Structures are given as structure tokens and as C-alpha cells.
Amino acid sequence: MVKKHIVVIDGYNVINRDPAMRSVFNKNMEQSRMWLARLCGVWMSARKDVWKFKIVFDGAGDVHGGASSGISGVELVFYGKEKKADSRVIAISSEATSHYHYTVVSDDNEVIRACRRNGAAIMTTDGFLASCRSASGKAAGSTAFDQHEKSLSDKAVHSINRGLLEHFENAHKSAKKG
After folding, report:
1. What's the predicted TM-score (pTM) here?
2. Where does 69-178 show beta strands of DSSP type E?
């Protein structure tokens, strides 16, 4: 039996690593979280090697517990007010079974050590972002992801969203045909 692959992401660790996402985060937290969720969705569509992404965030956020991002296979997890996402990432990585294999995306040394002890594979945030760039290039051609501007204009955000929407619509049409 093939294990389903789940990628657990230390959300703010990744967002703060990428200059463009960090810039958006400083202006609009929700928009930066959804940008990360969309990147995961593009990865899933282009690479097909991940069954689910769980993006874990510190604090209560706009919702509690697990929440749909609106993107198939991408779950947002807000760990509660005044709690650290690190604890939840580690706990999720300990849930590995004969049916699930976990990869944890983080640069936090404590998280990395604990998740390795739990049997999870580790991917650095830079490795994850590079994989997203590769997947987004395969999925939607040129994207604004690699344009590490100090801020994204409304036009750039619209362009990213339009490209992702076109990709998802094409993938949906292909799935219906095949």
C-alpha cells in the first residue's frame, strides 16, 4: 500500500522567509496566508506527489481549528490564541501511520529535531519555495512569484489570481475529460 503524503507547513516561517510574501503579510495577513495556500494548490495540481497540505499558523487567526482554504487538499490550521504553531506542527508529525507519511517545512531547529524524531521528512523553507517556483512554472507559465518586489500592486495580485484561476479551470476540465 502506498502511503499518502501530507506536507505540514510552519506557515509564518515560510511567509517571513519570502520577501514578497512578507511584504504582503505586513499589509494584509489574510492575503499572505491565501497566497501560500494557492501556491500549495498549484504544487498539488502540477506535481501530484502530495495528498494534502496542512498550513499551521500561530494564534487564533480568523477561524479556529482546521479550516478549508477553499483550495482542494489545502487545510489551514490556526492553533489558538497565544499558542505557538511549533507545538501543533510537531504533534501533527507524530501522527504518521502505515497510511500517511509526513514532510515538515520549517527552518526552526527545535521543530526540525522533534519532527525527525517522529519520523517525518524535513524540507527547508528555501527548498519548499524553490519547489513552489518550479511547480508554478510548470502549471501556469510565468508567474509573479519570482518577482520579489517590496510590495505587490493590485494589478500584480489580480494577474496572479487570474493565472491560478485559469490553471485550476483547465485542470478541472482535463479531469472531467479523463
Report:
1. 0.72
2. 74-78, 100-105, 121-123
Burial class of 128 by CB neighbour count within 10 A (0 to 12, 13 to 18, 19+): buried
> How many residues are given for the chain?
178
| Domains of the chain, CATH where assigned | 4-177 (3.40.50)
Note the Cα 58 to chain centre separation in Å: 15
Q: Which pLDDT does position 158 carry in this prediction?
A: 57
| Rounded to 5°, angle at Cα 150 from 147 and 153 | 75
What totals of helices (H) and strands (E) does the chain contain, helices first? 7, 6
Q: Give the Cα separation of 16 and 115 in Å (integer).
A: 21
Convert 84-99 to b/e letters by CB count within 10 Å (16 or more is b): bbbebbbebbeebeee
Helix axes 29-47, 125-140, angle to 10 degrees: 70
**Look-up: residue for cell 526552526?**
108
**59-95 pLDDT per residue, tens:** 755 543 445 567 888 999 987 766 788 999 999 999 8
